[in-house]
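User: Continuing from earlier, I have the next pair ready.

Assistant: Great, send them over.

User: Here they are, in order.

Assistant: Folding the first of the pair now:
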Amino acid sequence: MLSNYKNYRLLVLGANSFIGKNFLKDTKFQNIVATYHSILPENKFIGKKYKYKKIDIRNYNEIFNLIKKENFDIIINFVANNDNTITKTESVKNILDINLLGFLNLIESVRVLKKNIIIYHFTSTEIDNNKISPYSLSKYLSEEIRKLYNKLYNMNIHTIKLNNIFGPGDMNFVRLIPAICKNFYDKKKFNVNIHNKNKSLKFTYVADLISFIENKIKNPQMKKLSKKIKYHKSTALNVYKLLYKLNKKNFLDKDYSKFKRNSFENKLCSTLKWYYFYFNN
């Protein structure tokens, strides 16, 4: 690996994903090739120009040829399908194709090409909670495959385990915080009971995750990944109450700068502001 992390050449898979967009917007790394599947990311969100490649991670030849032509030091795989609301057989296949076959195509390409590349992959706390879903199954299997490839082929594949990530740009309105923010715009009654309202959960602001990823790249020996990502513990009911209070008052007012920079309230306020401008533009 390079001695100066600022010179690392990164392949970012999934430029249009929620976390991918935030990473490209906030990262201090500049030497980046970012992939998208169908729609080029909006400049107004990312605000930076990178080299973009249109590829389908499910197509082995596409990911193989990209890695073969470029000299990457780091690959970050943000590509994922986490739609757990769909239960039809075809939809299960779609999730496995992206989360499992796509991941296999990536690491097999690196193995065959004998590239010395560090790969960062993401999994979920759903695995620990034994939540049965196509998403959790795909992430569980990809984690087992990661361990196998590292052991058999001495590869450098790392897993970063995620809690409930929230922040600007999350368009999955099945998740708690996006659902609440959209509900305010739609002016409908919100049923917090369907989100296990009194269960204690961990919430990680997307900017804190991006900071963690960058620190991990700079310090690859950093251990105990899941314990080092900053998070805030709360219940779904408490999250709803905090957002409801912010929404009832003028959350665009400068008075809300009184929140401590790294407080949960401040991060929820910033998230609510993003959705406000998104829905009203």
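And the other member of the pair:
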Amino acid sequence: MKLHDLKPNEGSRKNRKRVGRGIAAGQGKTAGRGTKGQGARSGGGPRLYHQGGNLPFYRRLPFVRGKGMTVLNRVEYNEVNLDQLGEFKAKSEVSPDTLAEARLLRDPRNPVVLLGRGDVSVALNVSVHRVSQGARDKIEAAGGSVEILPIEA
């Protein structure tokens, strides 16, 4: 293959439409602009951001801010506190699966965050997606361990 052999794929390049070249061409006379009106005039058409009399988007934005806006890529966590882990025995494994079996998760598909409300008296091996510093300190003080799991997108 040489440079002079290269050509675009069949059907990927189309000739531009030449308007206003007589009625036989199919786009003659008004050249696709319709009859009369703002869009038919040269330089015609509404200004940028015009929305036909509606309040334009950029002027509507201040009213939309706040509780109406939602963050599209927000991560919703299942919040579990230390005082909820009372039913787990010493040296037991605490993971999203075991927490779901214990019915401590609101939505098992979401990642789990462990928060520090309450105390833990037995050593637990905890595997969660996020943990607060206070909860980590309390678990390690009781002789347990904390492992951070990756969040699957």
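Worth noting for the second one:
The first strand starts at residue 78 and ends at 81. The chain has two domains: 29-67, 78-148.
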